[in-house]
Amino acid sequence: MKPVKLLMVLSLALVMFAAGCSNNAEKENAPPASSADTGKSTNTSSEAGKPDISEEVKLKMYLVGEQPKDIGLIYDEINKMLKRDINATVEPIFLSWGDYLQKYPLLFATGEEFDLVFSANWVKYGEQALKGAYLELTPELLNTYAPLTMKEMPPEAWEQAKVKGKIYMAPASTKDFSMAVVGVRGDLREKHNIPPLKTIDDFEKYLDAIAKNEPNLVPFDEGIGAYTLYDFIVGTEFTPKYVIGNSHVTVDLKDASGKLVDIAQTPQYLEFAKKMADWSKKGYWSQNAMLNKTPIPESFLAGKSASMAGNIQSMSLNVTAANQQHPEWKVELFDLYNGKATYVNPYIGNGMSINANSKHPERALMLLDLLRNNEAYFNLTTYGIKGKHYELTSDNKVKALGGTDSGYRVDAGSPWGWRTQGLIKPLADEPDEVAAIKEAWTKSAITNPLLNFVLDTSNIKNELAAIKNVKDQYMLPITLGIVNDPVEAVNTLNAKFKEAGLDKLKVEAQRQIDEYLKNVKK
Amino acid sequence: MRMKRIAHDLRKNRTMYVMMLPAFVFFLVFSYFPMAGMIVAFKSYTYTDGIFGSPWAGFENFEFFFQSGKAWLVTKNTIVYNVVFMIVNNVLEITIAVILFELAGKVFKKILQSVIFLPYFISWVVAGAIVYNFLNYEFGSINTLLKSLGFPPVNFYNTPGLWPYILVFFSAWKAVGYGTVIYLASIAGIDTEMYEAAKIDGANVLQRIFYITLPSIVPTMIVLLLLKVSQIARGDFGLFYQLIGNNGLLYDKTDIIDTFSFRSLLDMQEFGMAAAVGLYQSVLCFLIILMTNEAVKRVNKESSLF
Q: What is the CA radius of gyration of chain A?
């Protein structure tokens, strides 16, 4: 009995000792976290001349995506130039698509030392910033170490990057759209005498013709990622900017007053639910779509289905791929918005931040400035090595070499975080429709100060978690039409949202929006 | 005086203590040290302050779980499924172990044992894909068979009522092989003289099973049972997540604490809330194991864990 007691005492002592240790470690780590101050002090000393780069440093940069084969070649070139320009080298490390959601917050939680990191609203930029993940980018820091970026960045991009009034990210400065387009097989469309698509009803005709006449093809291979049909049918009506994640609560960007709309409670949503139930029964997609994890374009390119949809950037690449592999398909892109209001994506959809624990924030910023504004750096990281991975055509378009076997395809090294409007070049084999659609969307794009609004979620986390679960259980079946009675399904969805506390969220969100608009008007 | 006795004990059983050391260190490092981090469940965690420096949040992190209205449902599902798995798997394991033991043909016995054991090595990810190809509405093998026989196809993935059976079946499919081996080992340890004596006394096969084999493996059964009970509030995440995935239509019948909290928190990235659910499960497990151990103690003092 005695030895057992001894062991217990011993282990308890050790536990307390360990706890004490890690406590100390945390405290030691704290000062560099608020290293905005250190940044400022070095900055004042070097304000007279150029920043001090006498000491050689190794930088680490975390990106989200899969590591391409030729990444070593690219960064060897980068490091040669970097050594010369700012006496530093950089090592990119990739968080793969499969587990970036789990790994990203752990980067900061483990206190690992790294310098640059990809950030974006879809990796919870705002929340990570509030938790102290990133270094605040003060105007002094930016002016001293990233002067070109300061000049190049649109002011509204800085505005959007502000979290509680402080900037933690240098957003990419390209204008992107997140509206969806559809891609269909031109050969089949002509075979069944369907005129070019203009509206969702035209698309329905196409799907119907496929469902009836082409038994070997799934008309539209929907899966768990389904959102495009909702966008075409409901999104076109409301021009939504979703305010509360995982729900249909949004503001209508056409409405300057910023009044919240819960789309799930509108008659339009009910119509959508009925239509999807109808389409699903007609066999436009599998009865087991709830389990289908294959993205629609993948199924389309494999020749299993007859149409695809997605945002214009990825659709453009998919059509190019289809044209290379199956020119006989005559794949076409159609814009179903057709003049309805559109909007430009928030800039914070991609960007780069500096780790709060970085030992070399100055050098990291200087690197970022080069990546964003120096064409040599930009081209290398975006398009690869000239002559090996890409070629410039006479009209300054990028022609990718090597097709699908290329060791570094366009954007393969996840360079979206430093994409800049001035340096990005059109692709030579981009489908003709793309430029036309983008131009049309630029014309129909509306602006609204609410595009920059970000909900502060710090006091409503519990409700948000509860709502996420309602979405999984009750919303996806409606989107995929896998419900027996769509009316009842919509009622259940709204009842469950209410139970999970959506009303409280709406009140809070409306309060934040009103306050935000008041400040904007000032 | 006391120190002397301890020193004496340490010296006397030196070899024993050295042999125990690796296990002791293992649990210390991987089970006891991390326990201190449990307080993150009561903290509003930020990167800069770390686990111990972050501000206290009281019971805020637990709220979402109970606010969802699903806490009772998923807790019930978790425990009921685990109890059913435990009963079904144990009955099958013991039955198969006894049959294998009584079987004469050595080669056949080995083959059978390997076949039953094989699924244990298949990961749930792969198993999930196999199940999908069995049950798919359009091209699944079961529905293809039904259609070719002239029956209407069954849409398994839209029919929650069927899933308790499917899950129990696949849990057994995967786990029974492993359990069988443990029971076989236990049966092999029974003194063969007892069987010989029984044979001479004229006992038939069934009598030998019921009066010698089963009573002899009761201690093994109880230990395995207690080990299972200690995990009763922790669902088999792989099984439920890989077979059900994001199929919300089935959640009322198939959602367990683990899958529920995983889905709710995956894109929240709140360590505190995730830790809160883990703590809830641990406390639940702890209470249940205490009660079970007490019950076992009343029946048979020798078999209880502590």
A: 26
